[in-house]
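1st attempt posting a full record on here, be nice pls
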Amino acid sequence: MQSKLTFLMIMICGLLNSSFVAAELAEVYSWKANPGKAAAMLESMEKAKVIHEKLGIKVHAYATTMGTNGFVDYVMRYDSIEQWGKAQDAMNASAEWNEYWNEAQQNSAGTLLSSITGINTDPSVKADSFAEQQVYSVFVWEVTAGRQQELLKRFAAAEKVHESLGARVESYVGGVGSPNRYHYVMNYGSWSEMAASRAKMMQSSAWAKLQADRDPTLATLVSSHSGQKLPF
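the predicted structure (as tokens):
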């Protein structure tokens, strides 16, 4: 735990002189329902969301589909690192949250598979700007040491193409739980929008050129999956 916190602090310090420090920060907790407890786990998440949003945290939950074994991502978003810190203090001081957490620990309906933190590379994005995005695909890349800026430049080029074809793209620098990894997230309003965008991508000369210019030594794709926002 200490090493993870140290990594996050190093990453934050490295970003202090950039606009990233004021960018959206996301925490993603991936949960797998215990046998026969899927409904109870979602009910528990809904209760947690109510408490978290009282504390100023924007929350969405996503049922993952392709590329996974069916876990649920509980995503907490903040406008900045500063807001994240204030929210953590508020949670610690919240009697309602502590009561909920103690009860959830005693009657756990799910198992936490992983937790990660990421900082959005676009400082203009706000935590409350994801209401219209219902489905997504995420591609997680592990970058070759010393080539982070090259990968971000390639992300920017890919984003330009994908957004012209109907996607909303957000890129995240991985922190706690995801060191040296970069997350490229393609968001859509529906599965139909995703399908239409992908059909256009297969016909896109700009995308074909970008793919042909890919340097396989720059980064390694370590995982990818899709998901859908849950209605609470």
